[in-house]
Amino acid sequence: MEMKQNALVYPFYLLYKYHYLIYVLALKELKIRYRGSIFGFLWSMLNPLLNLLIYTFLFVVIFKNTAKNYPVYFFSGILPWNWFSSSVMEATDSVVSAGALITKSTLPAEIIVITKVVSNLINYLLSIPILFLFLIFFHVKISFIVLFLPVVIIIQFFLTAGVSFFPATWNVFYRDVRQIMQTILQLLFFCMPVMYFDTQIPSKYQKLIYLNPIAYLIKVYHDIFYDNLMPRPELLILLFFISIVVYIIGFNYFHSRKDVFAEYI
Fold first, then answer.
1. Of residues 250, 104, 99, the one with CA closest to residue 163
2. pTM to 2 decimals?
3. 3-state SS string over 141-183?
4. 145-158 mean pLDDT
5. Contact criterion met (CB below 8 Å) for 212 and 184
6. Which of 8, 52, 162, 209 could bond 246 through an S-S bridge, CB–CB 3.0 to 4.6 Å?
7. Within 13 Å of residue 221, how many CA atoms lie on the same side as its CB?
């Protein structure tokens, strides 16, 4: 009980206490997602690969994008974006669709949201080998800088989970939230340098775009995989601090309202 009353510690204590259950539920969710398909988990790698081929054809062949190794640039940015956007969208519906797990189970409802983030994290990790194959194919240098990847993944996990708690809460009370989030995520996607380079953005708008922490995260992924640049330590520290703050605030916001969820489901 004392642990639950500690708003700073409990969000991380719950992760530690239920980490194995979260992992099992995330794997189960992935198995259900690909149940009945011939390729099963392979779709986790085939989907981003097919999307990459489509976008490469569109931007390189049709629109004549001459940027060097553009498929690597695009792929290294779209993968973490897919992890973020899919997690947020699935988390938005997670509480409403959980049903009995909310009304009858004694398990913390926060686990449901975190499971969505973890399942999409597993999807992301399964796509990483495809990205490395593209690095090799396009002769992009792979160095020790990739060792920063786990740090960036941890930062994105906490940021994504923290953000996901908000629409997951709102959607319980207002079922329009899912449609609103779809529009917001689509807008965010086109406002970030995923398909295009930040140098193509007028300088007066660059600062506005980088007010979004996800845009900075995408830039760090580009630094690691495309530019082969070491992420700036001060930027990683800032992003880590922001992600932890967002996670704590989002978790406690969700936690403070979950007792009335059963009345609306």
1. 250
2. 0.91
3. CCCHHHHHHHHHHHHHHHHHHHHHHHHHHHHHHCCCHHHHHHH
4. 96
5. no
6. 162
7. 28
